[in-house]
Structure formats: C-alpha cells, structure tokens
Design a protein that fits this description.
77 residues, mainly alpha, transmembrane, membrane, DUF3953, DUF3953 domain-containing protein
Length: 77
C-alpha cells in the first residue's frame, strides 16, 4: 500500500514540476511542494517499518517542513 502511495505522489509531483518547467508557469508550485511532502511522509513511514528510525525521523522532519512551506504558499497566493 505504501509503495503504491509513494509511486502516485511521486508521479504527481513529477508531472507538476515538469509542467512548471516547460511552461514557465509556477502557479502550481505549492501543490508540487504539498505532494512532495506527502511523498516524504510515506517514505518516512516505510523507513520506520524497516527499522531505520534515524532516516525515518529525518524524512518526517522534511515532511513537516515541506508541509508548512506548502501551507504558507497556499495562504500567500
């Protein structure tokens, strides 16, 4: 289940980033960061399941920071 979620969030992030890169329209940047944050959350949960607590904590911290940045981006847009 987590692999599927990671794949879906990664593809969505890649598509939004590619759209912004090719069209030079960065209005969806907050959505890209939001889906990137969800990818980091899923990866952190996978690392916790593997028993790698250090990497899991780091990925959860990256998730929290990215989530905060995306929310700020939604509010300021």
């Amino acid at each position: 289940m987590l692999k599927i979620l990671r794949f879906v969030f990664t593809v969505i992030t890649f598509l939004i980033a590619s759209y912004g890169l090719f069209t030079e329209d960065f209005t969806f940047g907050s959505f890209m960061i939001f889906f990137l944050a969800l990818t980091m959350l899923v990866m952190g949960l996978e690392e916790f399941k593997k028993g790698h607590k250090g990497m899991g904590c780091l990925l959860i911290a990256v998730f929290l920071f990215s989530f905060f940045v995306s929310i700020k981006g939604f509010l300021l847009s």
